[in-house]
Specification:
This protein has one domain. It has 406 residues and is of the alpha/beta class. Strands 3-2-1-4-7-6-8-5 form an eight-stranded mixed beta sheet, sandwiched between helices. The chain contains 13 helices and eight strands. Helix 3 links the parallel strand 2 and strand 3. The termini are far apart.
Length: 406
C-alpha cells in the first residue's frame, strides 16, 4: 500500500514541479534548439510603421485616477493624428463621465461612451469596438500608468501579418516597506514575464494581461457578457484562429498592489474562477493534434496552473503524511528518513506561509516570508476559485478592489 502512495506522491510532485519549473526549463531548451536550427520568428522594428490606433479605457467610477490616466495617455510618444482615445464610463456615478465630457472639448481625439447602466468591463469593450475605425485597438485599465513608448513598442509587431495581438507587461509599483502580498505579486509577475518571453519565441503567448493589450480590430470577437477573464479569452481565441500573440515587455502598465491581503484574495479568487470558466470555454485548445504548439503552451503554462497544481499540493502533504505513519510494515522504495525530512520541510514551508499571512493581516511586513506565503496564497485562492466557479458565483461585473496608495 505504501508503494502505491509513493507513486501517487511522486506523480503529484512531478506535476507541481513541471507546472512551476519544468515547463520553463523545457520551453527554454526548445527555444535554444529553434535558434540553433535557424527557425526563429521575425522581429519587426520598422520605426516608420505607425498605423492608426485607438486606446480604449473602460473607466467605471474612476474619478480618483481618470485625470492622471487621461494626461498619461495624452503624453504617450505617438503621432497625435494617428491615435484616438476612447473612454467608456458606462454607469459611472462619481463624476467620471462628467469629467471626460468637460475635458474632451479641448482634445479632438478624446472620445466618450457614457450610459446610465453598469454592465461590466467586457460589455464596455463589446460596446466600444464596433465604433472603432482604426486597424488596431489597444485596451488599458484606468488605474494604470503606461510608459511613454508603450504604443510604438506595441504596434511595431503588427507589421507581421501573422501577429493578431500583442500583450504588454504588467508591473507592480512597490515601496521599500511594501506588504508581503505586493512583494510576492511583483516577484510572480517577474517570473511570468520571463515565461512570456519564452512563449513568444517558442510560438505564442497564451493570454494577455488586461492592464495593456492590443488586437487587430477586425479580429476582435465579442465575448460572452459574463466572461471574467476577457483579456485571456480574447487573445486565445485570436491565437486559435491561427495568429500569434506577441509579448512586448517594453510596453508596460504600472499599477499599485492591492490595498490589503483581503482585497488581493478577493481578486485572486475571481481570477481563478475566471480561469476555470476559460478552460471550459476554450476546450478546443486541448486538441494538440489541431493546435500543436499552442495546445502544449496553453496546457503547460495556464491550464495546469489553475486546474492541476493547486490540487496536487494538499495531496502531496497527505500522501507524505500517510507514508510516514507506522500503519503499514511494507518497505518503501526510498528510505523512511527521506519522507520524514520531506514532511518536515513541507510543514516548515506552510508554517512560514501561515505566519506570513498572519503578519500581513496585522500590517507587519517580513520579506523573508513572502515567497512561501504568496505561493501558498495563490494556490489556495485557485482552489477557492474553482468552488466559486462550480457554485455559479460569477458575474462579468467586477467588484472593484482597492489599491495601495502611491
Amino acid at each position: 500500500m505504501k508503494n502505491l502512495l509513493e507513486l501517487f506522491l511522486g506523480v503529484s510532485i512531478f506535476l507541481v514541479l513541471y507546472t512551476y519549473l519544468g515547463y520553463g526549463i523545457i520551453a527554454w531548451g526548445l527555444v535554444k534548439i529553434r535558434k540553433v536550427l535557424g527557425k526563429t520568428f521575425p522581429i519587426m522594428n520598422d520605426p516608420s510603421y505607425l498605423p492608426s490606433v485607438t486606446l480604449v479605457v473602460p473607466a467605471y467610477n474612476e474619478i480618483s485616477c481618470v485625470e492622471s490616466k487621461l494626461f498619461n495617455s495624452l503624453s504617450l510618444d505617438y503621432p497625435a493624428k494617428k491615435i484616438e482615445f476612447l473612454f467608456v464610463t458606462e454607469g459611472s456615478t462619481d463624476g467620471t463621465t462628467e469629467y471626460i465630457e468637460s475635458i474632451k472639448k479641448q482634445y479632438p481625439n478624446v472620445h466618450l461612451i457614457g450610459g446610465t447602466e453598469r454592465r461590466g468591463k467586457i460589455e464596455a469593450m463589446n460596446m466600444a469596438v464596433p465604433t472603432i475605425t482604426t486597424p488596431i485597438v489597444i485596451f488599458t485599465d484606468a488605474n494604470t500608468t503606461l510608459n511613454k513608448l508603450a504604443i510604438k513598442n506595441i504596434v511595431r509587431h503588427f507589421k507581421d501579418e501573422k501577429v493578431g495581438a500583442v500583450a504588454g507587461e504588467k508591473r507592480i509599483q512597490l515601496n521599500d516597506s511594501e506588504a508581503a502580498a505586493g512583494a510576492g505579486e511583483g516577484l510572480y509577475w517577474k517570473y511570468e514575464s520571463f515565461l512570456k518571453k519564452l512563449d513568444t519565441e517558442l510560438y505564442s503567448v497564451v493570454g494577455a494581461a488586461g492592464e495593456l493589450f492590443a488586437v487587430r480590430t477586425p479580429l476582435f470577437q465579442q465575448v460572452e457578457k459574463d466572461t471574467l477573464l476577457d483579456d485571456f479569452v480574447i487573445s486565445l481565441r485570436i491565437a486559435a484562429d491561427g495568429y500569434r500573440v506577441i509579448y512586448e515587455p517594453e510596453a508596460y502598465a504600472i499599477e499599485r498592489p492591492s490595498f490589503s491581503i483581503k482585497d488581493e484574495m478577493k481578486r485572486k479568487i475571481r481570477i481563478a474562477a475566471g480561469g476555470f470558466q476559460a478552460i471550459n470555454r476554450l476546450q478546443m485548445l486541448l486538441n494538440v493534434f489541431k493546435y500543436g504548439w499552442l495546445s502544449f503552451q496553453y496546457v503547460s503554462h495556464r491550464a495546469m496552473r489553475w486546474a492541476v497544481a493547486p490540487f496536487c499540493l494538499p495531496l502531496i502533504y497527505l500522501f507524505n503524511f500517510l507514508i510516514v505513519l507506522p500503519w503499514d510494515s511494507s518497505v518503501t522504495l526510498l528510505p523512511n528518513y527521506f519522507y520524514i525530512a520531506l514532511l518536515i520541510a513541507q510543514t516548515i514551508f506552510y508554517i512560514m506561509a501561515l505566519l506570513g499571512f498572519q503578519l500581513e493581516d496585522r500590517q507587519i511586513r517580513v520579506k523573508l516570508l513572502f515567497v512561501p506565503f504568496y505561493f501558498s496564497f495563490m494556490n489556495w485562492c485557485a482552489i477557492k476559485g474553482y468552488f466559486r466557479y462550480k457554485n455559479g458565483l460569477t458575474s462579468g461585473i467586477w467588484e472593484k478592489v482597492k489599491r495601495a496608495d502611491g
